[in-house]
């Protein structure tokens, strides 16, 4: 095993342990290596050809069909992020992430403002949270925003496989406040929350921050 593989395996160990199933634990490092390693094509088939030519089916199942609870992984991410940059002088940065998408079948896709394009476009929008200190950022949360064109159409959400607890209308500030509460409960340390004017204009968001100290 190359040195970089050993370093990656050590870093991934606490996360891999949360996956439970043996085959998931085996395929996770392979998938991560494929994402961050060389090669322009990051889909399953070319990554399997480069890294695990005898295990294409396993890698495909890990991504396409594997079902597991993300909660333990998110909790571990909070722990590891706090170890790296958590402190009373750390910042929790709230922002939007837009993913341009064609068509209308992917969950949450609709004509809406895409931050990365600087204009309205057909896209998914996610609320992102990043813990940062001394110019070191660590992503700690990413939640999909469902626009009204989705939350008003229960049949569409059922067909797309949206989990039942998520089939409700929530504003981006509401999503952000829920995520802040989750991170505080997980023990993540920070002293200041930063967000752009889109969040600052929400009285409920400002009041939620004040209530949380």
Largest sheet: 5 strands, mixed
Task: Name the poorly predicted regions.
Answer: none
* CA distance, first residue to last residue: 48 Å
Number of structural domains: 2
How large is the radius of gyration?
19 Å
Which structural class matches the secondary elements?
alpha+beta
Beta strands, count: 5
- Bin the strand percentage: 15-25%
| Average of pLDDT | 90
Helix content: 40-55%
Order of helices and strands: HHHHHEEEEHHHEHH
Shape: globular
Total helical elements: 10
Sum this structure up briefly.
Helices cover 46% and strands 20% of the residues.
What do you see in this structure?
The chain has 213 residues and is of the alpha+beta class. The chain folds into 2 domains: 3-64, no CATH class; 71-211, no CATH class. It is built from 10 helices and 5 strands. It has helices at 3-16, 22-36, 44-51, 56-64, 71-85, 148-151, 154-160, 172-185, 197-200, 203-211, and strands at 91-100, 110-114, 119-133, 136-145, 192-194. Helix 1 (3-16) packs across helix 2. The chain is globular.
Main attributes?
globular, 5 strands, 2 domains, 213 residues, 5-stranded mixed β-sheet, alpha+beta
């Amino acid at each position: 095993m190359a040195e970089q593989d050993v370093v990656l395996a050590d870093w991934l160990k606490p996360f891999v342990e949360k996956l439970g199933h043996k085959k998931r634990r085996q395929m996770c490092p392979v998938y991560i290596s494929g994402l961050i390693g060389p090669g322009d094509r990051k889909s399953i088939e070319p990554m399997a050809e480069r890294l695990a030519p005898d295990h294409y089916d396993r890698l495909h199942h890990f991504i396409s069909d594997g079902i597991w609870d993300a909660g333990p992984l998110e909790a571990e991410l909070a722990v590891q992020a706090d170890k790296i940059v958590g402190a009373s002088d750390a910042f929790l940065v709230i922002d939007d992430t837009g993913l341009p998408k064609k068509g209308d079948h992917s969950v949450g896709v609709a004509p809406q403002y895409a931050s990365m394009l600087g204009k309205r476009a057909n896209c998914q929008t996610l609320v992102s949270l990043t813990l940062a200190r001394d110019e070191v950022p660590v992503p700690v949360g990413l939640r999909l925003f469902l626009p009204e064109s989705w939350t008003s159409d229960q049949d569409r959400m059922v067909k797309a496989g949206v989990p039942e607890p998520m089939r409700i209308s929530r504003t981006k500030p509401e999503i952000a406040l829920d995520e802040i509460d989750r991170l505080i409960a997980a023990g993540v340390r920070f002293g200041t929350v930063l967000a752009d004017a889109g969040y600052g204009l929400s009285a409920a968001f400002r009041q939620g921050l004040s209530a949380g100290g």
